[in-house]
């Protein structure tokens, strides 16, 4: 076969293999993302085929929208707390699982049954958010039938006549949701960090032990710097999850598409969805989508920049 | 912290310990007891979290065997009624149908995702051509953004194609949204396959298409299994896409809810009808297949996760 003929066949083959995946991806993913920008400058209702170009009107209306501003603030709160708490807990447990055991000949080793812990911890990750919503809806029930209230009553911490209204208390609801996200995420990041810890050569730990480093020192001076790449990636993923929150808020809290009581658990995604499907303000909802898109990108860049360290090769 | 400070050892001690045989329990009196303190300490924390994971799930499953009054009355009561009638009622309330709808979609969407994703990833991983990197980043960048940023136009796109509340519409959307992760994962997998096999196949006169299906794809089987499981989990648990795209469009349009959507539906319904055991039974039914898939493939899941995220 001549070189040229082969090259020609290749081009056809490459195009043939790319065309279908690319067409689907363009139609259903990329094109809608692009369109979101276009629609955000219109007063489109979604019902009628006609709409007018209104410039930045939607964006200036957004600035004045108290509900959206509250939602933005809640997203920012979650953005700080979700990654911090999840990563710290996951790192702590990963270190316990991998280095919490007896010091044996290998210097540092995992606890017994570490694989069992990893299996159990990861389990919430395979449950759908819809299941989590029903499960924690039951846990947070505002009478003695809720698992949390039931326990606290049993311990005498809660008066059975006045159980805590977890999801209806304006200053509690967001933190209750935060706990669900942490409960869900810790296992995933534990497995991730533990894999990273295991890829660190054992002799680095041995050397640290020989030099007289304790566990806290080993962790801070050896493990954490070597894991920095994974921690950084995790912070970005968790940040993106904290920008979302739609499923939990819309199914666990009161109100049309959630956000209650009185907008105290509102996040941008629920405001967007309400404006789109309930108020029929498609253009306005698209403007919210654009704001979220920009925030997500800024967030990723800032996280990667702020946590940048010199990469350690091993 | 006392537990941590007790572990700091003099260098001599550590090397003495190193000369011991294996890390078996009760080896040196001193280092053994040091290890013990920390072991109890770490097991303590680990066990508490494990209980926090397992307890709510077991509690919920037990709820299927309670009566509604019992569920509302006290959280810590033991179920009185060990019959499976709540399960059969949940099945009749639609869990069975939701299950079937989800299966119908996934029987097509998962294989299609794997096939199209692997094809694109293979070409991008092994054939240098102008714009190759660009296409790759283009495919992978979709993973960066939450789905609902594109939701409004996506809804109208599917509507224009007349595919709202149809299986084929949801299947195509699932495939498209699974593409970034699948391409990313399979790309790194195809890169690791040896070139020698490819060259041997070319010399034997196999065409590129044939090499892909008969040589490369079978060799990539471990990667395909991992990414396949992730796609099964991801598409099975998807909630936002079906809740926007799978709503009956007219009065006569049949309801084709996915399982996740159906559970939330059941939650509203059972709140009115005050039949919570049915809801708990429904959630338990939805949970079991995932538990089975997870326990049978947990090795591949953890290995796949590691190779995907740690390059």
Automatic annotation (TrEMBL), chain A:
InterPro entries membership: ABC_transporter_permease, MetI-like, MetI-like_sf
Transmembrane segments: 12-34, 72-98, 119-140, 172-192, 235-253, 282-304
CDD domains referenced in this protein's UniProt entry, alphabetically: TM_PBP2
Main location: membrane
Keywords associated with the record: Cell membrane, Membrane, Transmembrane, Transmembrane helix, Transport
GO BP terms, alphabetized: transmembrane transport
Pfam families the UniProt entry points to: BPD_transp_1 (PF00528)
Domain ABC transmembrane type-1, residue spans: 72-303
Gene3D superfamilies: MetI-like (1.10.3720.10)
Record keyword Acetylation present: no
Family classification: Belongs to the binding-protein-dependent transport system permease family.
Protein name per its UniProtKB record: Sugar ABC transporter permease
Organism listed in the record: Streptomyces vinaceus
UniProtKB/TrEMBL annotation, chain B:
Family: Belongs to the binding-protein-dependent transport system permease family.
UniProtKB keywords: Cell membrane, Membrane, Transmembrane, Transmembrane helix, Transport
Cross-referenced PANTHER family: ABC TRANSPORTER PERMEASE PROTEIN MG189-RELATED, ABC TRANSPORTER PERMEASE PROTEIN MG189-RELATED-RELATED
Organism: Streptomyces vinaceus
SUPFAM superfamilies to which the protein is assigned, alphabetical: MetI-like
Major localisation: membrane
Stored InterPro entries: MetI-like, MetI-like_sf
Membrane-related topology note: Multi-pass membrane protein
The keyword Iron is annotated on this UniProt entry: no
One family name in Pfam for this protein: BPD_transp_1
GO biological process: transmembrane transport
Chain segments annotated as transmembrane: 40-62, 98-122, 134-158, 170-190, 276-297
Name under which the protein is recorded: Carbohydrate ABC transporter permease
GO cellular component, one term: plasma membrane
Superkingdom, natural source: Bacteria
